[in-house]
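Treating backbone geometry as a discrete language has practical consequences that deserve illustration. The amino acid sequence and the backbone structure tokens for this protein are reproduced below.
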Amino acid sequence: MRRRAGHGRSAATGALCVLVASVLWGTTGTAATFAPEVGPLAIGAVAMGMGGLLQALVAAPQITRHAPRLREQRGTVLLGAVSVAVYPLAFYSSMHLAGVAVGTVVSIGTAPLASALIERVVDGRRLTRRWMLAAGLGLLGTVLLCVAEAAHAADDTGQASVAATLLGVGLGLVAAATYALYSWAAHRLITRKIPSRAAMGAVFGLGGLLLVPVLAMTGGPLVSSWSNAAVGTYMALVPMFAGYVLFGWGLAHVPASTATTLSLLEPAVAAVLAVLVVGERLPATGWMGIALVIACLGVLTAPATGRRHRPGGTASSDDAAQGDLVRPGAM
């Protein structure tokens, strides 16, 4: 009983870390509006690239200490690093082509499904009913939020070309897959006894190195004015560095599929900030979407009520702690 209570507190702490990270990530869209002349590739490269290199610098002692174990898992590290490098380029380009609403909902909204598929195929985990309920509420809420913002954007700027929208949706799917992949890779390293700081520092540091050439080719506008430089610095230090440090701590306590589902808070935060800071208006449908996302988070983070015991003393896996994922046959 004591160990179960400790696991519940650990999972709650992990969930809180991911939620705070999601709030920080939700500020990136509003921050980018203060540097409109900076392109999506430059924004993605400076945010994830510089943030990743800073993570590696801070975690250098831990990376050195656990270098032998990281070398043993070099395939996982490399997969995570390549995914880290591809994700921001695809994510910000998706929002640029298809619009912030559509790009965000495809990139963030489909990531939990990608994570669940990866964990099911690679790790042999199966979904619980609580996770499916939470994911369903979150996806529905994110779609409603997307529809509301897309309708508002169409009223203001007109309809984007079909080709650009389709390309943006495709890039959003790439972003979702790579987000799920680097989350899974980091979680896998952590579960193999590599501390979260060393795991995240290695994966994000190598990913940051891969983004340096992109930043060199596209980052000119970032140094053309103090405001642009300030936006780039903020993106690297706060949402990416601090946000992913928190995300790494969260991954030490919850599976990647749960973490990516909790990150559905990000588009809701982005929409609220657009209303409060940028001055956009959100229709009732959008507020309904935010309410459903909050309901999703409530379902996923509510304390487990304990396992139902079946005849013969076995327990139902549907009541696993925090309702995330359990291995087939786990009791």
